[in-house]
Amino acid sequence: MKKPSTVLVKNKIDTVAIGSFDGIHLGHMQLINRLGENGALFVIDKDNANLTPGIKRIEYSKHPCMFYHFLKVKELSGKEFVELLKKQFVNLKKIVVGYDFVFGKNRSCNATDLKKSFPGEVEIVDEFFYDGISVHSSVIRELLMSQQVDRANKFFGREYSIVGKVIKGQGIGSKELVPTINIKVKDYLLPSNGVYASRTKVGEKIYNSVSFIGNRVSTDGNFSVETHILDENIEVGDEIEIFFVYFLRENKKFDNLQALKRQIAQDIQNARCMLKVCKFYNYELSSCKEKGCING
Q: Which residues, given as ranges, of the chain have pLDDT below 50?
């Protein structure tokens, strides 16, 4: 079978999966994997979509997307919503939805009602569990905000990442500590404050790194998102992408730059260990703590 195109050509689409698809996690993939070559996502977009904002959904799903804001469809009756789909995709033969899908004004219709009102095939995908937990974006958000990015990554089936515009930092990193790339992040949910083993994508290459989120309490006190690339001195462009692998430690204040520099050296050592063994193939995570590699 040919790989599906990510360019939306509406009259070629014969199958759509409907949802918000914020996260493109393992639960969403149960729907996406049923689309086929001429499938697309009908994305009901909401303003709180901050795990995979905008066109990132196309990148991760590898399918074209049609975006409809929630406010444009919330007042439609169930029948009007189905008519909208048929009008947008004139060759639509199949719709894929999750077990908990609802539509129509005041959430008045469910997946069973969709089967009755759409003349083609409707496939209702069962609830998906990982580690005994139902996979939802809300669960992933809670994990990201509670220092459990490694566990969140298992629910994603990939390493959570953010994209940011490169900005000027405070200027003491390369002189007194280690050089960092500072970024300004919009639209994405930031994981909880602290230091992370990470990977940083610059251009088309991905480098091992240590990243920091939070207020620089040992220096100027300002909030920052910054990353130090390990063993490389590279030129950066306008934006970079940071992939979060493992939470190393909470943010804390140091009495002087020498003490901070010693801690950064320890962070780098810990990150090297985690990045050596933490790979998301088959969604398994090896623990450096069990191997005695993580130090405080």
A: 280-290, 292, 294-296
Q: Which two tokens stand for residue 290?
A: 């069990």
Spatial separation of the C-alpha atoms in residues 239 and 227, rounded to whole Å: 12
Q: What does pTM read for this prediction?
A: 0.89
Q: Which two tokens stand for residue 52?
A: 């995979």
Question: Facing residues of 256 across strands?
Answer: none
Q: How far apart are alpha carbons 10 and 115 in whole angstroms? A: 22
Given a contact cutoff of 8 angstroms between Cβ atoms, the answer to whether 268 and 213 are in contact is no
CA-based nearest residue to 152, from 139, 162, 161:
139
Rounded to 5°, the CA angle 60-65-66 comes to 155
The closest of 140, 82, 89, 134 to 111, measured between CA atoms, is 82
Q: Tell me how far apart the alpha carbons of residues 138 and 160 are, in angstroms, rounded to a whole number.
A: 14
The DSSP element (H or E) to which 168 belongs, if any, is: none
